[in-house]
Each structure stands twice: as C-alpha cells, then as structure tokens.
Amino acid sequence: MIPATTPERLLEVAGELKERGCKGILISGGADGRGVVPLTKFARAIARLKKEMGLLMAVHTGIVTEELAAALAQANIDCAMLDIIGADETVHEVYSLDVSARAYYQSLVNVTKYGIPASPHIVIGLHWGRILGEKRAIDWAAEFPLASLVLVVIMPLPGTEMENVQIASVSEIADVIRYARERLPDTALLLGCARPAGKEREIIDRLAIEIGVDGIAYPEDGTVAFAREKGRTPRFSELCCSLIFLGPAAPHL
C-alpha cells in the first residue's frame, strides 16, 4: 500500500500510478474508534480520480455511516468493499469496537440507499479461527442487491495476536461457502485473495469450484486445470475480484 494521508497526496499518487499504466486503485486505510475508515475528507479527490483520470475506484470502507455513503456516492466510486460481521462477540472481542454487529447490516442499508455498488467481504473464521457469525452475515448480505459477495478465510499471520490460532477445518469452511451459494444463487460469489497457503488452499479452492463459486483470486497451482476437469471454462482478469462482475450480470464461470 502506498501512503496518501491527504487529498493532495492521493491525487499525486494516483497520477503517478496512471502514468505507469494502472487502470484503477484500491483506497484503504485504518479505521477510527467507531470502525469507520475516515474517507469523507477524501471524497472530492476521489471524484477527481474518476472524472479526470478515468480510474476504476474500489474502496475499503469499514462501517459505512450515512454521511460516508453520501460522500462516496457523490464521488462516484465503482465499488464499496465492506466487511460484514454477524456476531456481536466478534465485533467486541476481535475488533475491540463498542458497537453492535447490526452496524454492519446498517452499512449495507446505507450503501444501497445511495446506489453504491457493494461487494461485501465475509471473513470465515474471524472469531479467533472459529465459525461464529458468518452465516448470519450471509443472511444479511442476501437481503441486498450486490455486485458480488466475497468470502475470505482468516490467516494466522506471524507477529499478530492471531498467529497461533487454530483455524476452522476445511469442511467447516466449505460449509460456509456452500451456505453462501445456496442463499445467494444469483449473486456472483467469489473466493477472495486472503486464505491459508499450501495444501489447505488447494483443497479449499477445489471445494469452492465443486460448490459453484464464480471466481477465485490467485488460484492455487492446479486449480485452473481442476476447474476444466469439472466442465468449467476459466476466464482470467487482472482486476480486483470485487470489480469483475460490475455492470450487466455475468454468467457463472
């Protein structure tokens, strides 16, 4: 990630990236004490990136207040990538926020109200490796017209409080993916880039194909060949997975 802590610096960074051939950028950042990424002050700069540079614009939002939704809609972003957490315990014990999980549901209400294409992300095993509120989060997502739904899997990163967590079993992970497919049969369902490496990643990728996901970010070696064996016709894109199904509904891959 390239730091751009002021609107002016954001415009400079985007201009440099545009000159290097970039077609779009992802705007992200740390959240404040309410779980909101403080993007409102950047809204005018983001609008200029769209209007003057023609860049695709994906934004990590955190919790979306109505004020932020209005600002991002005015900026004409292409996609809001917002985490959806379905358990109060996870919000309090993992994110250390003094809000209810319903704040994430309300985020979906707000982005929908302002017509922002939404690609919610649900982290499987977010509660210290356990499956807890994922299906509730999926149920919430199923109530809204989405650009896509992205599922990722918790990664025990060294140097973090989660480095030694025991993640959910492959069968539990597959159960969540299957539930999402059943609840959102007509929504693009994607397996995002964050998931464990190695043999587990290979197994998860193959199970996801069998369940019927529409896309996989950074597939493990052998995944594409496996998809072809299962009668799928893989297509490839350099875009962030949250952007590939924007616009007219695309057929399942």
Give the secondary structure arrangement, pairings included:
Elements: H1 7-19, E1 24-27, H2 43-53, E2 56-60, H3 66-75, E3 79-81, H4 88-93, H5 102-113, E4 121-124, H6 134-141, E5 149-153, H7 170-183, E6 189-191, H8 199-211, E7 215-216, H9 223-229
Parallel strand pairs: 1-2, 2-3, 4-5, 5-6, 6-7
Your description of this structure?
This protein has 253 residues and is an alpha/beta fold. It has a domain at 120-247: Alpha-Beta Barrel (TIM Barrel), CATH 3.20.20. 37% of the residues lie in helices and 10% in strands. It has nine helices and seven strands; from the N terminus they run αβαβαβααβαβαβαβα. The protein has helices spanning 7-19, 43-53, 66-75, 88-93, 102-113, 134-141, 170-183, 199-211, 223-229; strands at residues 24-27, 56-60, 79-81, 121-124, 149-153, 189-191, 215-216. It has a four-stranded parallel beta sheet, covered by helices on one side. Helix 1 runs parallel beside helix 2 (43-53) and helix 7 (170-183) packs parallel to helix 8. The longest helix is centred in the C-terminal third of the chain and has 14 residues, at 170-183. It is globular, with a radius of gyration of 18 Å. Mean pLDDT is 93; it is low at 248-253.
Rounded radius of gyration (Å):
18 Å
Structural class: alpha/beta
CATH superfamily of the domain at 120-247: Aldolase class I
CATH class of the domain at 120-247: Alpha Beta
**How many helical stretches?**
9
Arrangement of strands in the largest sheet: 4-5-6-7
**Low-pLDDT ranges:** 248-253
CATH topology of the domain at 120-247: TIM Barrel
Run of helices and strands:
HEHEHEHHEHEHEHEH
Q: Tally of extended strands?
A: 7
